[in-house]
Design a protein that fits this description.
The protein is of the alpha+beta class. It folds into 2 domains: 151 residues, Immunoglobulins (Immunoglobulin-like, Sandwich), CATH 2.60.40; 69 residues, Immunoglobulin-like. The protein contains 4 helices and 13 strands. A hairpin with a 6-residue loop joins strand 8 and strand 9. The longest helix has 15 residues. InterPro entries: Ig-like_fold, Transglutaminase, Transglutaminase_C, Transglutaminase_C_sf. It holds the Pfam family Transglut_C. This is Protein-glutamine gamma-glutamyltransferase 2 isoform 2.
């Protein structure tokens, strides 16, 4: 379980990412008042939920799901921020933000707030880890309290399909078809497939796709014979 000091530190980081200097100063003063309560004691909880289709190359939504299990209204500011992140925790530029200055929760209610993350915002900064860190912060200024949630999201690489055409027979050539579905909203061109198979190819084979792959369509490597031992 994360310590309160750790959560306070990360809350300060998030405030620094997407709020003004005046708001950061006000939040720092609230921290010094030492009136931050644990999540279990407030009756208000938040977590980051994910949608479907979170593939590298696509746009997708994440959600801050907040529940109020008390008989009181809770009002304040809700901040959402998404940034690329590496395996060792180094954060990249922001790829999605939302700032709701007048967010409220009625008694015994729940809300799910979407945050749209666009490929054009993260494509140049996503590392080989394929991770995006999403953080949500709900600040109640009147009560000098906050609620923090975060989640690391892994983006799936596009699926590559391999299909063997015909029946493999010993000492005879066979044909394999390799295909990949274009996850982008623009055509792909100038792409190559690199394939190899133990006992089937003497070395790696690189084949260029001569026809552009349209959005959401399958790009295929021209059929190439392989030797089946």
């Amino acid at each position: 379980m994360l310590s309160l000091a750790s959560e306070r530190s990360r809350a300060d980081d998030l405030i620094g990412e997407i709020r003004s200097a005046e708001e950061r100063e006000a939040f720092t003063r609230a921290n010094h008042q030492n009136k931050l309560a644990a999540k279990e004691e407030t009756g208000v909880a938040m977590r980051i939920r994910v949608g479907q289709g979170m593939n590298r190359g696509s746009d997708f939504d994440v959600f801050a799901h907040i529940t109020n299990n008390t008989a009181e209204d809770h009002a304040g500011c809700l901040l959402l921020c998404a940034r690329t992140v590496s395996y060792n925790g180094i954060l990249g530029p922001k790829c999605g933000t939302k700032d709701l200055l007048n967010f409220s929760l009625e008694p015994f209610s729940e809300k799910s707030i979407p945050l749209r993350i666009l490929y054009e915002k993260y494509c140049d900064y996503l590392t080989e880890s394929n991770l995006i860190k999403v953080r949500g912060l709900f600040v109640e200024s009147a009560a000098n309290s906050y609620l923090l949630a975060e989640r690391d999201i892994y983006l799936e690489n596009p699926e590559i399909k391999i299909r063997i055409l015909g029946e493999p027979k010993q000492n005879r050539k066979l044909v394999a078809e390799v295909s990949l579905r274009n996850p982008l909203t623009v055509p792909l061109s100038g792409c190559t497939f690199t394939v190899e198979g133990a006992g089937l190819t003497e070395e790696q084979k690189t084949v260029e796709m001569h026809l552009p792959s349209e959005p959401s369509s399958w790009g295929k490597e021209p059929q190439r014979p392989l030797t089946y031992p």
